[in-house]
Design brief:
heterodimer; A: 98 residues; mainly alpha; 0% strand; disordered N terminus; B: alpha/beta; 8-stranded mixed beta sheet; two-stranded antiparallel sheet; 9 helices; 20% strand
């Protein structure tokens, strides 16, 4: 699957399905049933989406720095991290690679 | 009928959701400017609002992105954000006017998408909350793709706005125009919190002068440099197109750090139909 967009520092990552990753995050953000299923078992929930392995890993680990570097849109990623009660300073440090 | 009301306003969610985080003088100047716009709208006799707006993955996703989308619904609901401190409510639509706008666009070489069902987030609800607290006028929302590259060009926004202005002036309705979004801000991105006041002042000066040449010359890279949220200013540029060079007035501008946004409000009411 073609890589749609990689941010700085992610150029060496394998081709990924950024669309599916962002779709999963948007579903969790916007659909209560998806959100509940995701928080019950992220691993099981993610099986319904065609994610590349690095994407799946970053998602399961809630690795915000990597998810951002992969190209997840900020207005998808920040609401997703708010669902995880991530404070803004921590979020900004993560996406800035600090 | 001449356009009866026109304004542009930022829609930073902090304006309502975390209002008290802003220094009181800034907050009060912004709230006062919204109140002035509300009074102008009430005095204008406007019966229908065309809201030039943007959203934040509320309705649209990458499965189908159009440059522009005109709402044809009988009614809308919003906001989708329970934390916005704006009561969820219903707002009447105007599918007849929406269809007139669509047909005029298609007759003039712009083909927006259209939607019979849309929910509003803070991008639309926040200015309406201040300007039309009773939610008692019909609206037609016109959404701009500001999230997914490539966004429409400033020239295209101007052209769309010109068509909207022509339809409004031909209509038997008393139509007002609201543009919402901007100014410089980078929500959820690395420069979140960075406000480029020089950019904001230059942009608003062009809006105040009704300088469609300068506004149409904005490039995507210039908007992007002012933050991802600056693409929302395409709606302001469309408003300038609709008003066809009418001059405006900046009634408030504040670089509000706790809201992470250059917040601006402008009126174009002077000289419009009373």
């Amino acid at each position: 699957m073609a890589c749609l967009r990689l941010r700085d520092g992610a150029a060496n990552m394998p081709a990924m399905s950024l669309y599916a990753l962002q779709k999963l995050i948007r579903d969790v953000n916007r659909k209560p049933a998806c959100r509940e299923a995701f928080f019950q078992s992220a691993e099981s929930f993610a099986k319904a989406y065609d994610l590349a392995e690095p994407e799946r890993d970053a998602l399961i680990k809630r690795d915000v720095r990597t998810l951002y570097a992969m190209g997840v849109h900020g207005l998808l990623l920040r609401p997703f991290t708010l669902l995880h009660q991530m404070p803004e300073p921590d979020y900004l440090k993560a996406i800035r690679g600090e | 009928m001449p356009i009866t009301f026109a304004c542009a306003a930022s829609h930073a969610p902090g304006i309502t959701a975390w209002a008290d985080a802003a220094p009181a003088p800034q907050r009060e100047r912004i709230q006062g400017a919204f109140e002035r716009l509300r009074q102008e709208l009430d005095a204008s006799g406007t019966d229908t609002l065309v809201v030039l707006t943007s959203e934040h993955w509320a309705n649209f996703f990458l499965d189908h992105i159009g440059a522009f989308c005109i709402g044809r619904a009988e009614r809308y609901t919003g906001p989708i954000e329970p934390w916005l401190k704006i009561a969820r409510t219903e707002i009447k639509g105007d599918p007849t006017l929406a269809t007139e706008l669509l047909e005029a666009c298609y007759d003039n070489d712009i083909e927006p998408s259209f939607a019979h069902e849309l929910e509003f987030d803070h991008g639309t609800m926040l200015p309406l909350h201040f300007l039309m607290p009773k939610m008692d006028r019909a609206i037609v929302p016109v959404f701009f793709n500001t999230l997914a590259a490539p966004q429409p060009s400033a020239q295209r926004a101007l052209a769309l706005g010109r068509i909207i202005g022509d339809v409004a002036r031909r209509s038997s309705r008393r139509i007002g125009l609201i543009a919402t979004g901007g100014l410089s801000h980078d929500p959820g991105e690395r420069n979140h919190g960075v406000i480029d006041s020089d950019f904001d002042h230059r942009f608003m000066a062009a809006m105040a002068a009704g300088n469609c040449v300068a506004l149409g010359a904005y490039q995507r890279a210039e908007l992007a440099a002012a933050g991802a949220g600056a693409f929302e200013l395409l709606s302001w540029i469309a408003l300038a197109g609709a008003l066809d060079g009418r001059k405006g007035e900046v009634i408030a501008y504040e670089a509000v750090k706790p809201w992470a946004t250059g917040v601006g409000l402008m009126t174009f009411a002077h000289g419009l139909a009373a």
